[in-house]
Amino acid sequence: MLRHEFQPGRLVAGFFLIAAGVVYAGDAGGAWEAPWFVAVPLVMGGLCLAGAVGGLARGIRRNRRSGRTDTPGSGPAPGSHIPAAAPHRRGS
């Protein structure tokens, strides 16, 4: 049983922040040389992607809770938007 709901935006943001930390840890350890500006596109790109993923997940979750589905053919029946005709009255 899950103790909290899954938040994919936070997962993506955490992944990119850890990746930036690994890049600079490798640079500090002497494994490779990383210029100082590597963190800016890595972190900003990760945060933008996390925002997009979070927004998409929120939209999907909202559609599930409201009962709406986006599957083809789940809409109203063809012609259901046409009002029913009133019964014909004969004049007296």
UniProtKB/TrEMBL annotation:
Key word Membrane present: yes
> Keywords for this entry?
Membrane, Transmembrane, Transmembrane helix
Region (Disordered) spans which residues? 60-92
- Its transmembrane ranges are 35-57
Spell out the protein name for this chain: DUF3188 domain-containing protein
